């Protein structure tokens, strides 16, 4: 099975790291989103855009400036004109148009995807503008909550390890680990801010 036709079930079985790598491969953009449903939806949208292309259109997009065959020229026939307002645009021009319409840059080199995304943005069917910064959650005691993503299997093994070591909580383990690493890095003043006794 081609990687570009991976079923939804396969995407849903991927962990967050694999989904981000797949997103970068298919969409052509980096992402740090921890939302697996969002990543799967964006990947599927991009794959759907590619799937809608016919083999003839894929060949045209891959070699837009290929000259007609000599036989056709000898017979006096003319190559079929390209259609659509994006037909004469280069990859760089499409990326510039994407920035203008979608409101953020893209590293995608997938011409059909760029055309599709521009049309969707113009029609108001996809969000435009810079991606909003994730809101930082601050507890009533002034402490901030930060997201950490782990594979389920790795997290289970980690929890088992700190429990076997007699530690009271996962937060206690993280504070001790951060403190020790900062000391090794030569930053004892910063390490002092991560006292395991303040983990609750």
Annotation keywords:
single chain; 200 residues; mainly alpha; 10 helices; 51% helix
The whole-number mean of residue pLDDT values reads 77
Number of domains: 3
Largest sheet: 2 strands, antiparallel
Oligomer: single chain
The total of beta strands comes to: 2
- The stretches of 5 or more residues where confidence is low (pLDDT under 50) are 1-6, 63-68, 70-74
| Helix-strand makeup class | mainly alpha
Q: N- to C-terminal separation? A: 49 Å
Strand proportion, as a percent range, falls in under 5%
Provide structural commentary:
Helices cover 51% and strands 2% of the residues. It is an all-alpha fold and 200 residues long. The protein folds into 3 domains: 59 residues; 46 residues, no CATH class; 49 residues, no CATH class. It has a two-stranded antiparallel ribbon with strand order 1-2. Strand 1 and strand 2 form a beta hairpin. The longest helix is centred in the first third of the chain and has 16 residues. It is elongated, with a radius of gyration of 25 Å.
In short:
The chain has helices spanning 8-12, 16-27, 36-51, 55-62, 70-74, 91-102, 111-122, 152-164, 170-184, 188-191; strands at 137-138, 144-145.
Write the layout of secondary structure elements.
Elements: H1 8-12, H2 16-27, H3 36-51, H4 55-62, H5 70-74, H6 91-102, H7 111-122, E1 137-138, E2 144-145, H8 152-164, H9 170-184, H10 188-191
Antiparallel strand pairs: 1-2
Helix pairs in contact: 2-3, 6-7
């Amino acid at each position: 099975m081609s990687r570009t036709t991976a079923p939804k079930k396969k995407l849903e079985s991927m962990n967050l790291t694999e989904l981000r790598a797949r997103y970068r491969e298919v969409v052509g953009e980096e992402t740090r989103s921890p939302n697996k449903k969002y990543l799967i939806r964006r990947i599927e949208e991009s794959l759907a855009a590619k799937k809608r292309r016919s083999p003839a259109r894929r060949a045209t997009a891959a070699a837009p400036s290929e000259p007609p065959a000599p036989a056709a020229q000898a017979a006096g026939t003319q190559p079929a004109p390209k259609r659509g307002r994006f037909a004469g645009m280069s990859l760089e021009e499409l990326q510039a148009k994407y920035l203008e319409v979608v409101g953020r840059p893209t590293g995608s080199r997938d011409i059909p995807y760029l055309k599709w995304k521009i049309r969707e943005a113009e029609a108001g069917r996809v969000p435009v503008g810079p991606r909003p910064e994730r809101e930082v959650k601050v507890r009533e005691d002034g402490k901030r909550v930060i997201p950490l993503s782990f594979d389920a299997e790795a997290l289970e093994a980690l929890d088992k390890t700190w429990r076997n070591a007699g530690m009271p909580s996962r937060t206690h383990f993280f504070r001790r680990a951060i403190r020790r690493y900062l000391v090794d890095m030569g930053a004892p003043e910063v390490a002092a801010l991560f006292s395991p006794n303040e983990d609750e």
